[in-house]
Specification:
Elements (H helix, E strand, L loop, with lengths): L2 H4 L6 E6 L3 E6 L4 E5 L11 H4 L3 E2 L3 E4 L4 E4 H6 L14
Antiparallel strand pairs: 1-2, 2-3, 4-5, 5-6
InterPro entries: DUF2442
Pfam family, one: DUF2442
Protein name: DUF2442 domain-containing protein
Amino acid sequence: MASLEFETEEMRPVKAWCSADEVHVTLADGRTISTPLWWYPFLGDLDPVALNEIELMYEGIWWPEVDEGISVQSMFLGIKAPGARAPEKAA
């Protein structure tokens, strides 16, 4: 699937925020998608305020503090950032 086939006006992010464990994005068509925060190791050192200082782009979202972002397409397809590791579960 080519990028232009995937990205449509309906899939444009209109709101984004982070909770303690997830990244959430509301799309122009009203859907909200969420992915685990641990999928994006580059966000690991940000405090809650910086985590929520997010810029919206046509294809995704951007954190100026770390000069990194994620695409809506990668969230839908389950593509994790390099170095992503699931947290170990407590025994």
